[in-house]
Amino acid sequence: MIEVDERGVVEFTQALVRIPSTNDPARGRTERPAAELVEARMREWGWDPVVSEAAAGRPNVVAVVEGGGGDGPTLMFEGHTDVVTEGDLSTWTVDPFGGEIRDGRLWGRGSADMKSGLAATLYATRALQLAGPFPGRIKVCALADEEGLMIGAHHFVASGLADGVDGAIVAEPEAGEICAVAKGALRLRVDLTGKMAHGAMPQHGRNPVQAVGTLLVALRGLQRELQERHPAHEHLGEVYVTPTVLRAGSEEQVNVIPATASVFVDVRTIPGLEHKVVADRVAALAAAEDGIEASVSVLVDRPPVDVPVTDPVVAALAAAHRTVTGEEPVYGGVPGSTDGTVLTHWGGVPSVVYGPGGKWIAHQADEYVEVAEIVRCTKVFAEAARRFLHRDF
Ligand SMILES: [Zn+2]
Question: Which of 22, 28, 219, 287 has the fewest CB atoms below 10 angstroms from its CB?
């Protein structure tokens, strides 16, 4: 097994957690200081990272580590430097940016999602490099804004940096599960336009609020129909069509029929269901009400990920998990989207998600990661890289 710097990876995780890298310009916070720490560590190791801004103050850091062992594939390790807000401090029993280790756990915002995973990718790559030449190369990437619109990953793909990458390991916390599938997310805004009128004379108006009711009932029918046509996925569960936001009228004007109403819908999809089909169906249902005009806009479109377990990057990771832990890998699915969604769908790179930390601890108060898990995951990453690059899986 490849020897990793166990103390180094844990201390580096602590240092990252101590940087409050939420995207909150009003409080003077972005990912930049966390990205700079990653860049500095890469430079200490003699790597030559390229820093590019996905947006002002929001850098991507990308280093290519050549193996010096001849031709071979390109493996990508991916992590994000941003974290979600710590939220209400009174719900925390530890300092969210203290990076404290207690009871074998490293505590703080981003400890699981995903500064430990990011640290593990760096230290795994360093370990493999110190173990001697290897074929091909590893692209180590610390990207911005995973928790927002994923502008870091989109910028990465748009800059051509995903070209030539043969596989990507995304270090999100998945409790040791190998997740080669991820659910899709489609967020729609439906605008319904009628005609404003006095509540006393509704016959002179066309009421979009009534059309909202019709649409909500129809959306429940659509969910039922899609669930029947696309049975639950073993790792991802059901398709969901969930109305989440309504907007119409004004409390100060209860006697006025408003001209417009809007319904926002959050659709969660599984492989085999095309987002365009869903958007077209919602548009048709919205247009069903007489005298009401409907238009549908797509706010977010992140298709599901469905990488086969036989893909080299998944197979190498599974073999590495077996070697390091002595246990059979457990396969799972990602309930939301990750940067892997962008890499696979828009960058054409097969991706798999695997990393230290529990699936459900992300974004919660008292977030933590088991210290032993950080170390184990670093070893799995190093071994996975070795196997992927040597095509030994
Ligand atoms: Zn994350």
Answer: 28
